[in-house]
Specification:
The structure holds two protein chains of two kinds. By secondary structure, chain A is mainly α. Chain A has one domain. Chain A is 77% helix and 0% strand. The two termini of chain A are 25 Å apart. Chain B is of the alpha/beta class. In chain B, a hairpin with a 2-residue loop joins strand 9 and strand 10. Chain B is built from ten helices and 14 strands. Helix content of chain B is 32%, strand content 28%. The N and C termini of chain B lie close together (12 Å). In chain B, helix 3 packs parallel to helix 5. Chain B is elongated. Chain B has two domains: 221 residues, P-loop containing nucleotide triphosphate hydrolases (Rossmann fold, 3-Layer(aba) Sandwich); 67 residues, Alpha-Beta Plaits. The chains are: A mainly alpha, B alpha/beta. At the A-B interface, helix 1 and helix 4 of A face helix 2 and helix 3 of B. Chain A: Its main location: membrane. Chain A: Belongs to the ABC-2 integral membrane protein family. Chain A: It is a multi-pass membrane protein.
Chain lengths: 253, 319
């Protein structure tokens, strides 16, 4: 194991985060705060409780997930896309590193950054809404698992993309709609029966439901199923990355 | 002599169908400076990229430092440093950060003293805290060399190291190459500047259309293929070379005003004096004479011209 290489990639990527601290940390925190102001405080006070939880508190897990997915994908995809775009990828490819080490470095840094962000948003939420976390260990577990899984997904997008617009298209066209329709702002029990069934095909439902369970002990779907779906998606991403490095797809001729 | 890189029957066909390398064999000796010459698209960069692990070979094997570059890539790549042709650097990082990153990437523990030495050697020490995007092209080139040297490689590839750099930097670069050789680093460089190969290289390989056309000691090459020519400017044009002189290696220019006599540079007797006497005997008057020695460039142009793509002869190694 080339630990020096993992450390080098990880620190190099994290340095990018600290250098762009304002857009890395401040902008997601500010935009999430706006959600809390609008949906939590302003509108939330007029909403009925869902499953015995105030609306402001109800949306916290979903909003953290919304940010976590977007940030994980964009950090990881940008992290690997930039060296491909600038050409500095030659160095990584010519270094004595295995693909596991490359992925660990890039995905580890992207996931770390979004976990820090998730925790920051959680702390910010505390300023607006009163809540307590029922299963803190599971909460952290879901946070880490989701950050890693979607950073892996972002890594795939970063390898696949051959332009900046492609880098944006998957998060914008697929992930954001799925998150909004995945129960960030509502419980899927509030939907008509047909839509409840359709919604179950949305993988983000399982993430948000599981994460919300770790907060309040209530879930739309079984928590074991949530965990299983998340792990399944992670295994899928690992499989695709394995294939990428095996065939050299978009990395090596 | 120890072989540090051994290339056997290397083939590369790109997805587009372009065959960049054809059955290439090459041995690089430990501690030498090897210059790889060839026109654009000859396969120089493909060859280097395969050895360094950036491009996959279609067939064949490469050993670097005795390790197979595919199956023992960790050991093989750890010995190699690469300075690619394109100026590809990070933009927002400092010189220090990017060079430190390279060392770690190649699996070496941190060693600020070593990085400091490299940066000082390359006149980058004053710029260590500057962002790379603020540097000039020449400085960026130095940064790329610093990155390649950060993990103390035994083998250094320089792909067109002096393309587009000014004269002063080129001289610095040559000096650095000499220094590295003195420390025992094997250096393989590709270049368009034949003067560079003539100045630096111990051995020269010429590659064209994916084949190694020739590999030889520089001095032997210059001697073997070096020719001298005597150009005789005639007072009056000739339609053809007179019968009496047909035995000599002479050629007549199209306008009939110049005779070129080719002779071997190594011969004691150049044959100039008898030629001039014979010219006089045949009543050919001349106005001017000049001799010319072929440079590596002539040899190169000649070789590249000779090795057409349809030619099927395999690359020969005469060293």
């Amino acid at each position: 194991m080339n630990l020096h290489a993992i450390r080098a990639i990880y620190l190099f990527e994290m340095a990018r985060t600290w250098r762009t601290l304002l857009q890395s940390i401040a902008s997601p925190v500010i935009s999430t705060s706006l959600y809390f102001v609008v949906f939590g405080s302003a509108i939330g006070s007029r909403m009925v409780e869902i499953d015995g939880i105030s609306y402001g508190a109800f949306i916290i897990p979903g909003l953290i997930m919304l940010m976590l997915l977007n940030e994980s994908i964009s950090n990881a995809s940008f992290g690997i896309y930039m060296p491909r775009f600038s050409g500095t990828i030659y160095e990584v490819l010519s270094a004595p590193v295995s693909y596991v080490e490359i992925v660990t470095g890039y995905v580890g840094a992207a996931a770390s950054k979004s976990i820090i962000l998730g925790l920051l948003i959680l702390a910010t939420a505390r300023l607006f809404v009163d809540f307590h976390i029922a299963h803190p260990v599971w909460m952290v577990a879901f946070l880490v698992l989701t950050a890693v899984t979607f950073s892996l997904f972002g890594f795939i997008i970063g390898v696949w993309a051959d332009g900046f617009e492609k880098l944006q298209i998957i998060p914008m066209m697929i992930v954001t709609p799925l998150t909004f329709l995945g129960g960030t702002f509502y419980s899927i029990n509030m939907l008509p029966p047909v839509w409840q069934t359709i919604t179950l095909f949305n993988p983000v439902v399982y993430l948000i439901s599981g994460f919300r369970w770790s907060f309040y002990g209530v879930a739309d779907v079984n928590v074991g199923l949530s965990l299983g779906m998340t792990v399944l998606f992670m295994v899928l991403c690992v499989g695709v990355i394995h294939w990428i490095f095996k065939t050299g797809y978009r990395l090596k001729n | 002599m120890d072989t540090v890189i051994s290339v056997r029957n290397l083939n590369k066909t790109y997805d587009s169908g372009f065959q960049a390398l054809k059955h290439l064999d090459l041995d690089i000796r430990k501690g030498e400076i090897f210059a790889l010459l060839g026109p654009n698209g000859a396969g120089k960069t493909t060859l280097i990229s395969i050895i360094c692990g950036i491009v996959r070979p279609s067939a064949g094997t490469v050993l670097a430092g005795g390790f197979d570059i595919q199956h023992q890539y960790r050991a093989a790549r750890g010995k190699i440093g690469l300075v690619p042709q394109e100026l590809t650097t990070d933009a927002f990082e400092t010189v220090w950060a990017t060079v430190t990153f390279s060392r770690g990437l190649f699996g070496k523990p941190r060693d600020p003293a070593h990085i400091e030495r490299i940066l000082k050697d390359l006149s980058l020490w004053d710029k260590r805290n500057d962002k790379i995007m603020a540097l000039s092209g020449g400085m960026k080139r130095r940064v790329m060399i610093a990155k390649a040297l950060s993990h103390e490689p035994e083998i250094l590839f320089l792909d067109e190291p002096t393309a587009g750099v000014d004269v002063e930097l080129r001289r610095d670069m040559w000096q650095l190459v000499e220094q590295l050789r003195d420390r025992g680093v094997t250096i393989i460089l590709t270049t368009h500047y034949i003067q560079e190969a003539e100045e630096l290289a111990d051995r020269i390989g010429v590659i064209n259309h994916g084949r190694l056309v020739l590999v030889d000691e520089k001095n032997a090459l210059m001697q073997k293929l070096g020719k001298r020519e005597l150009h005789v400017q005639l007072a009056a044009p000739l339609t053809c070379i007179p019968e009496a002189l047909s035995a000599l290696p002479l050629s007549l220019s199209e306008d009939g005003l110049e005779i070129t006599f080719t002779f071997d540079a190594r011969d004691e007797q150049s044959g100039i004096a008898p030629l001039l006497r014979q010219l006089e005997d045949n009543g050919i008057e001349f106005r001017d004479l000049r001799t010319r020695e072929s440079s590596l460039e002539d040899i190169f142009v000649h070789l590249v011209h000779e090795s057409r793509p349809d030619e099927t002869a395999p690359g020969r190694e005469s060293a």
